[in-house]
Design a protein that fits this description.
The complex is a heterodimer of chains A (317) and B (290).
Chain A lengths: L1 H50 L5 E2 L5 H4 L1 E2 L3 H7 L2 H21 L1 H12 L3 H12 L6 H12 L5 H8 L11 H28 L4 H9 L4 H26 L7 H6 L5 H4 L2 H11 L3 H30 L5
Helix pairs in contact in A: 3-15, 4-9, 5-9, 6-9, 9-11, 11-15, 14-15
Chain B lengths: L2 H34 L3 H5 L13 H8 L1 H29 L10 H13 L4 H10 L7 H4 L6 H13 L2 H9 L4 H12 L1 H17 L2 H6 L8 H19 L11 H36 L1
The chains are: A mainly alpha (317), B mainly alpha (290).
Chain lengths: 317, 290
């Protein structure tokens, strides 16, 4: 009995081993393919996560990440006592929120208008042009913005002055600067933003429109009762996801469009991290701000994803 | 009012609005081109709007005779091509195994990748890592940190999954190895999505600015965007000092700045329209799963 059992386990063990070797014989190429990308993720994506510990250390360049002394939450206390931290936090929310109000509806309206266009050629050419700004870097946009909005030789102010108005300091007065910032956002993102709505609209049942025609519905009524409801789920999902990104803000746009004269509005978390970390060498404090942003950002995204799933059954995770 | 006339009015109004938006998108470029081709006198007196005044090519002659600008352009072109190629190789190498349901550890690797989409160490630890790897002021600092975009990777995985499995299975029965199947069957069927991803990677590298600002101080490897940025900053100084009535003559002429902006934009405009039909489907794939 015992003998039989042990032979069985032996056989099983042998079988397992055999299965494992054939598995690796068959799959080793896939692991070989994966190895380099995984190494990349470990070094360049998880490496910085290991480095996050300097938020809790009195970091200096000579002692390195491991050699620096632990200081607990002292750096957090220091950051939360900084006035600039709250200003940049407020600006991050403010710019994102205003951007949402101004830039969110534009692609919806534009997508509906494009959908109503009957000439396929005109539609295609318009789309090609409308997508272009999405591919232009913020540095180039910055260059163009100065050409357009400068006080002396900028085109907009030239036109204003030609009509007898006074020049508006679009780049150097904080409230006027907000207009510039939001304007560039609409310009850059409105066209590209239509893609998802137009994609949702390709799925609309044409019979609905035909039925509405029989009832004698006007074009506007059809938009209101057929087109809009069919992109409503997309609108809701995108809105919620956008709300989830309230704390995350790109670096390029506020850094390039902003300047010292309007720093009171243009300084946001991402530029603040760069400024105190890389320009002033306060690595620990900058890492704390970055970590704060990452954690709060994660909470926002998970929260918005949860809400999105509850309301539309569609999320990102 | 008959139905036909109301339809016609609607179409006219609609086309007008779309056209206005198209013009709104194009006008800044047209203005910049106009400035780049105008005389400095006409620009500073505010005569230039959408058409060149006192037409001349001087600014472009100057841009093309600026050796550092040409070097930067050449470097950025090579950098963009090399980055795109490496990114695509790595993304394909990661995506294909992750479509194989029977691969042990697949779930683990997927989680490992997806986590990085929602949490990152932040730019300071990233900077310190690059510094510890001795990559400051090397091209590697501009290539390696962004080698695989998790977003693009997921687009590619969902595309690979949509390829009918029967095609791959028949090859596997014939004794084709995985790498062989990938090269002979999967990749040739995925050209549109690969064109899309290559465009995303290339545009990302071409437009990339923050990493160059952080990692590069050696003018020999200035990407075009960083060079342009210094010019834009110069503009800002102009704007700020104008308030104090400083001398404008000493600053870079507007036409030259405009010509440089156009010079950096044209390469993108040359590539992009050819790929447009591909990237729309790519974005949709990403939106579903991304």
């Amino acid at each position: 009995m015992t003998k039989a059992k042990s032979t069985l386990t032996q056989m099983n063990g042998y079988g397992e081993l055999n299965k494992r070797t054939t598995y690796f014989k068959r799959y080793w190429q896939l692991y070989a393919l994966l190895s380099l990308p995984i190494l990349y993720f470990l070094i360049f994506r998880y490496g910085p996560m290991y480095g996050v510990q300097i938020a809790f250390k009195d970091f200096n360049l000579f002692q390195g990440i491991n050699g620096s002394e632990w200081i607990g939450l002292e750096a957090f206390r220091e950051v939360f006592a900084m006035n600039d931290f709250y200003i940049t936090l407020r600006n991050t929310f403010m710019l994102n929120f205003l951007d949402l109000i101004v830039s969110f509806p534009a692609p919806i309206i534009l997508a509906i208008m494009l959908y109503e266009i009957r000439s396929a050629r005109f539609k295609r050419i318009s789309q090609t042009i409308l997508y272009i700004p999405h591919f232009i870097s913020w540095v180039i946009i910055g260059g163009i913005v100065y050409q357009l909005f400068g006080t002396q030789s900028g085109m907009i102010n030239g036109l204003l002055q030609g009509m007898g108005f006074e020049a508006i300091p679009f780049l150097t007065e904080k409230n006027s600067w907000l207009v510039t910032y939001l304007f560039t956002g609409v310009w850059q993102s409105a066209g590209w933003g239509t893609i998802l709505y137009l994609a949702a609209l390709t799925g609309v049942n044409k019979e609905l429109f035909e039925a509405a025609d029989v009832d004698g519905a006007s074009r506007l009524r059809k938009i209101w009762h057929i087109t809009l409801p069919s992109i409503k789920p997309t609108i809701v999902t995108l809105l919620i996801l956008n709300l989830g990104r309230m704390v995350s803000i790109g670096f390029d746009r506020p850094y390039i469009i902003g300047n010292t004269a309007v720093r009171e509005y243009s300084d946001v978390l991402s530029t603040f991290v760069y400024r105190i970390g890389l320009e002033s060498g306060q690595y620990t404090l900058a890492t704390v701000v970055g970590l704060f942003q990452a954690v709060v950002g994660l909470i926002f995204i998970l929260g918005s994803n949860y809400i999105s799933k509850k309301t539309t059954g569609d999320g990102i995770l | 009012m008959s139905e036909r006339t109301s339809n016609r009015i609607f179409d006219t109004v609609n086309i007008t609005f779309v056209s206005l938006f198209v013009i709104f998108c194009l006008a800044p470029f047209v203005h910049t081109i106009a400035v780049s081709l105008s005389s400095n006198r006409a620009i500073t007196s505010g005569e230039v709007t959408l058409w060149p005044v006192e037409f001349n090519w001087d600014a472009y002659v100057q841009v093309f005779s600026d050796q550092s600008m040409l070097n930067s352009l050449g470097f950025t072109v090579i950098l963009t091509l090399a980055t795109t190629l490496l990114c695509m190789l790595f993304t394909i190498a990661a995506a294909y195994p992750l479509t194989k349901g029977r691969l042990k550890g697949r779930k683990f690797f997927m989680y490992m990748i997806i986590i990085t989409m929602f949490f990152s160490g932040g730019i300071i630890p990233e900077y310190l890592l690059i510094r510890d790897l001795n990559m400051i002021n090397t091209v590697w600092a501009l290539i390696l940190p962004g080698l695989v975009s998790p977003f693009n990777l997921i687009i590619l995985i969902s595309f690979f999954k949509n390829i009918p499995p029967s095609l791959e299975e028949s090859a596997e029965i014939d004794g084709s190895s995985f790498i062989n199947t990938l090269l002979r069957i999967v990749l040739p069927l995925s050209l549109p999505v690969m064109a899309t991803l290559a465009l995303f990677y290339a545009v990302g590298r071409w437009n990339g600015f923050q990493d160059a600002l952080m990692y590069v101080t050696d003018p020999q490897i200035y990407p075009l965007q960083l060079k342009l940025f210094q010019m834009v900053q110069n503009n800002m100084v102009t704007e700020l000092t104008q308030m104090e009535g400083a001398n404008r003559a000493a600053l870079t002429p507007e036409a030259l700045k405009a010509a440089t902006v156009i010079f950096a934009t044209v390469p993108i405009l040359c590539v992009y329209p050819w790929l447009q039909k591909y990237f729309v489907s790519g974005v949709m794939l990403g939106a579903v799963k991304g």
